[in-house]
Design brief:
InterPro entries: Allantoinase, Amidohydro-rel, DHOase/Allantoinase_Hydrolase, Metal-dep_hydrolase_composite, Metal_Hydrolase. The radius of gyration is 20 Å and the shape is globular. Helix 1 links the parallel strand 1 (about 5-10) and strand 2 (about 35-40). Helix 5 crosses helix 8 (about 165-180). It is of the alpha/beta class. The chain has helices spanning about 20-30, 50-60, 75-80, 85-90, 115-125, 140-145, 155-165, 165-180, 205-215, 225-230, 250-265, 280, 300-310, 315-330, and strands at about 5-10, 35-40, 70, 75, 95-100, 130-135, 195, 220-225, 270, 345-355, 380-390, 390-395, 400. The structure holds allantoate ion and zinc ion (ZN) (2 copies).
Length: about 400
């Protein structure tokens, strides 16, 4: 199959390499059949919001990556109204921009509002590159729940779930759609594209996105394997490995997400691999309100999608569409995403029918395996080998000696 392209991964390098890092993160990606990933501009320090900080990223990645790696740049209040700075960042090779509509949890990556996003889109239009948005708007009414005493037991998942209701996602999407109109044919930002990352709410938020697509807005949406594999009902008290934002919702929502994916209303999948050190996951404490939000998953997205998708009758062709073709298009990777003459030979060899237990004995290549929400699961779909541009980078538990992945810059 074509190698997977993960358009949403946080490898935290430079600056927080103890959370993940380029060597461990790309080794895990290769072991999971991912041949290209586009690294997010935050959780590393400093955040990737300028040509200088992009340079640090590229330096950190070079000679230490086992798969191809590209970069998103950050759209933040500091650069949003500075077209010259944004153009410099895009000229330097970021594949597009990423912004947050709520606090990101990272001090040097502040949130943006619709005005910043409108300004960003108008610059992106010239480059025909996308803006990816973390679409949640913190509402004042509910935010008191996020304070220390929570309004419930902080070890109980339902306490956390209530702090980030679907209305947060809906409010963000509603606001985004006031500016995505600009991307329509003939509009002031024609050529720009808006991509909603990690959708969790399969109800109103998704309905709004569907309607915008029908109206001709240039908009796509991804969801992540953890929203398709888990439901709120089954998350044990204190098990903060499952904390992420937006949160994993109830089983009925999960069912709706699968239906939307099967119907083509959700365009693609990404890992949103967002690990940290075990100490910040507060695994002993189990405090959902204080623990770091983010799921560690990059090595297992292929078997997870395949295993949990059996019930819905997913096909290999759908896997390729969700994990290779459409992500390649979003990231402007025209020589990737399909096995075709002239393309890079980015290939994963795997056995869909082979099952394995993801226990402590299973080789894990992420830096902090204990925080992964998938430990303890039985999955089907074993990756045998991964090739990046024809180079064998992973085979049956072993990696190539040389880290021969390339940094990929947009031109
Ligand atoms: N700072 C983060 O990496 N946040 C991430 N955290 C999640 N998803 O829980 C994200 O993508 O929003
Ligand atoms: Zn996010
Ligand atoms: Zn993320």
């Amino acid at each position: 199959m074509p190698g997977l392209i993960d358009v949403h991964a946080h490898l935290d390098d430079p600056g927080r390499a103890e959370w993940e890092g380029f060597p461990s993160g790309t080794k895990a990606a290769a072991a999971g059949g991912i041949t290209t990933l586009i690294d997010m501009p935050l959780n590393n320090f400093p955040s990737t919001v300028s040509t200088e900080t992009l340079k640090l990223k590229i330096e950190a990645a070079e000679k230490s990556i086992y798969v191809d790696v590209g970069f998103w740049g950050g759209l933040v209040p500091e650069n949003a109204f500075n077209a010259t700075a944004l153009e410099a960042l895009l000229d330097a090779g970021v594949h597009g921009l990423k912004s947050f509509m709520c606090p990101s949890g990272i001090n040097d990556f502040p949130m943006t509002d619709a005005r910043h996003i409108k300004a960003g889109l108008s610059v992106l239009a010239k480059y025909k590159r996308p803006l990816l948005v973390h679409s949640e708007i913190q509402s004042v009414v509910e935010s008191h729940l996020e304070t220390e005493d929570g309004g419930g037991d902080p070890r109980s998942y339902s306490t956390y779930l209530k702090t980030r209701p679907p209305s947060w996602e809906e409010a963000a999407v509603r606001e985004l759609l006031t500016v995505t109109k600009d991307t329509r044919s003939g509009g002031p930002a024609e050529g720009a594209h808006l991509h909603v990352v990690h959708l969790s709410d399969a109800s109103s938020s998704l309905d709004l996105i569907k309607e915008a697509k029908r109206s001709g807005d240039s908009i796509t949406v991804e969801t992540c394997p953890h929203y398709l594999a888990f439901s709120a009902e089954e998350i044990p008290d204190g098990d903060t490995r499952f904390k992420c934002a937006p949160p994993i919702r109830d089983a009925a929502n999960k069912e709706k997400l699968w239906n939307a994916l099967m119907e083509g209303d959700i365009d693609m999948l990404s890992s949103d691999h967002s690990p940290t050190v075990p100490e910040l996951k507060l695994l002993n404490d189990g405090n959902f309100l204080k623990a770091w939000g983010g799921i560690s998953s990059i090595q297992f997205v292929l078997p997870v999608t395949w295993s949990y998708g059996q019930k819905y009758g997913i096909t290999l062709e759908q896997l390729v569409s969700w994990w290779s073709e459409r992500p390649a298009k979003l990231a402007g990777q025209h020589s990737k995403g399909a096995i075709a003459i002239g393309n890079h030979a980015d290939v994963v060899v795997w056995e869909p029918e082979v099952e394995f237990d993801l226990n402590e004995d299973h080789p894990m290549f992420v830096k902090n395996p204990s925080i992964s929400a998938y430990i303890g699961k039985r999955l089907s779909g074993k990756v045998l080998a991964t090739f990046v541009r024809g180079n064998l980078v992973y085979k049956e538990g072993n990696h190539a000696f040389a880290a021969c992945g390339s940094t990929i810059l947009a031109t």
